[in-house]
Specification:
two-stranded antiparallel sheet; 10 strands; eight-stranded mixed β-sheet; Rossmann fold; alpha/beta; disordered C terminus; about 20% strand; about 300 residues
């Protein structure tokens, strides 16, 4: 059983981000930061967070600014893009996670978009290990076939017409992704239309950010993912060239399952199948590593973003 608390984590620019902390009974072995997919609320990851807490790990989830419980005011008034989500929001949550268990390990579990943002998060060096789930580059011509059939209409009709018309992307009423800030949609579209994704659009600064990641990365590619193909997964994780990256394809049949798909990994029925087999070893590896020295409050403050 976990002790669950809602809290606001303030980014460096003062924006309050809605977060939820799941604490174990007793002293936490470490902290897991759960970083969401595009348009997916943090509540979706609650079953995994509770499973982690039951095993002695604190778990911290959050909504990006403008999304879920972090939506404050009209979305069309929000000026943010994907890089802002990483540099402000993810960076703030890394610092907040560190405070929950000083000197203990920190694991980043990123779903889809959440597996792309480590390379854009400036204080990612404070994370000890990274697990990405169903994460790929997003380049539309490499998408899995079920998505590729619809991608042309999405990127060349809906996104460029509806975003300026509404001042944000009204995906909720269309059943597509969800409502997104205009800056996020514009930048995401540019990335997805470029063969080299974010690096191809943003240049060397972003390439260097990905290359600067040193934490070991376990990339869980889902064999029956209807969105991300094997090539998408390989393209994204090839950017983490400074890290030890292990690519693992997860086939439903190998785990006695009929289907997993892009979203299925996080469903509570996998508490006895996928999570202990795939997340469990990462937790054990972190527990076995030497503890880090505990920072003073002043040292923690200097490691945060300006």
């Amino acid at each position: 059983m976990s002790l669950e608390t809602t809290l606001d984590v303030h980014a460096a620019d003062g924006y309050p981000l809605a977060a939820r902390l799941y604490r174990p009974q007793g002293t936490a072995k470490g902290v897991v930061l759960l970083v969401s997919a595009m348009g997916v609320p943090q509540s979706f990851y609650a079953p995994l967070a509770r499973w982690l807490a039951a095993r002695g790990w604190a778990a911290l989830s959050f909504d990006y600014r403008g999304m879920g419980d972090s939506r404050r005011g009209p979305l069309k008034a929000l000026d943010v893009d994907l890089i802002g989500w990483a540099q402000r929001d993810c960076a703030a949550l890394v610092e907040a996670a560190r405070l929950q268990a000083p000197g203990k390990p920190l694991l980043w579990i990123g779903h889809s978009l959440g597996g792309q943002l480590p390379g854009l998060t400036p204080n990612i060096g404070r994370v000890d290990r990274i697990v990405t789930v169903a994460a790929g580059s997003g380049y539309w011509l490499e998408n899995a076939w079920p998505l590729k059939r619809r991608a042309w209409l999405f990127w060349f009709v809906f996104a460029p017409i509806l975003t300026p018309l509404f001042g944000y992307f009204p995906g909720k009423r269309l059943g597509m992704v969800g409502d997104l800030p205009a800056g996020v949609m514009r930048q995401w579209r540019r990335w997805c239309l470029h063969r080299d994704y974010a690096v191809g659009v943003e240049g060397q600064a972003v390439a260097q950010g990905f290359a600067a990641v040193r934490a070991p990365v376990l990339a869980l590619g889902i064999e029956d993912d209807e969105m991300m193909s094997r090539r998408n997964t390989e393209s994204l994780h090839g950017l983490y060239r400074g890290a030890a990256v292990a690519l693992r394809r997860v086939a439903p049949a190998e785990h006695g399952l009929a289907r997993i798909g892009h979203f299925g990994f996080f469903r509570k029925e996998h508490a006895t199948t996928l999570w202990p087999r795939l997340i469990g070893p990462e937790l054990a590896a972190l527990e076995a590593e030497a503890p880090k020295p505990v920072e003073s409050p002043a040292e923690a403050a200097t490691s945060a973003l300006p």
